[in-house]
Write a sequence for this structure.
């Protein structure tokens, strides 16, 4: 029997998504602060779980269960690092849909410790076919995204 973890994917709230992430030793650099690349991984988890809770699953897209096989590719990622996080901190990764137009999905993501903003990212993701061409997200999936945002 497979265990279900209801809160593993975070939750939808305030027109977006919230995911708790604990900072582990592997996320830090030699100074004991969170390595800048770790925020990129935290943001990726937030985006993936936001989509999952909207009913858009990477595995289903890749398997072609909604038409041709599709994937998401980060087209642009602008990150601002404002304050450091440290080992054992619990961060909230907040993801908010800015717009979904054509083959592009733009999101604003923030990493917070309590109410303190540590880092934020403006992310543009492209919907692509198996051969790497941009394409629109199927209408029924785009509607799911818009309904949860």
């Amino acid at each position: 029997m497979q265990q279900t973890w209801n809160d593993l994917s975070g939750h939808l709230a305030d027109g977006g998504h919230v995911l708790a992430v604990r900072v582990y030793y592997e996320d830090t650099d030699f100074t004991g602060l969170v390595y800048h690349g770790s925020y990129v991984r935290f943001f990726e988890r937030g985006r993936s779980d936001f989509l999952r809770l909207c009913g858009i699953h990477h595995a289903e897209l890749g398997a072609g269960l909604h038409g041709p096989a599709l994937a998401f590719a980060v087209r642009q990622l602008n990150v601002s690092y404002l304050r450091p996080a440290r080992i054992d901190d619990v961060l909230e990764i907040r993801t908010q849909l800015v717009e979904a137009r054509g083959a592009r999905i733009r999101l604003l993501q923030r990493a917070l410790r309590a109410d303190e903003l540590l880092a934020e990212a403006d992310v543009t993701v492209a919907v692509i076919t198996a051969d790497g061409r941009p394409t629109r997200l199927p209408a029924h999936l785009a509607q799911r995204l818009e309904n949860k945002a």
The two ends are 33 Å apart (CA to CA).
